[in-house]
Amino acid sequence: MAPRYALLRHAPARVAPGTCYGRLDLEPGPADLPALRVALAGFAQAPLFSSPARRCHVLAEALAEGRPVAFDERLLELDFGAWEGRPWDAVPRDALDAWAADPLGFAPPGGESGAALIARVRDF
Known about the structure:
The protein is mainly alpha-helical. It contains 4 helices and 2 strands. Pfam families: His_Phos_1 (PF00300).
């Protein structure tokens, strides 16, 4: 039997609308835990892995119900570097255009490219 995986994204982060965030360690907003538990019923014995970001590990631990959760930095979101925490409107338009034109090759100043993100997650 082929392995099955359930991939979850964290609940909306508590951040001002229009803010660029990837690696910012933000508090999670509320999650619908009862609905998630129903959706994950077939994965009750599956190992749990999570990004160490607060908005992810809070959800993972709530769903784990006592099972161990393995935290792995390779599961962190894209590093937006100098853009982190800034309003998207404050990011220079030419930089956003360069990122949109080449999301795999372009990296924000001090951040990582889409290709680097993919390589990191593939290593997981």
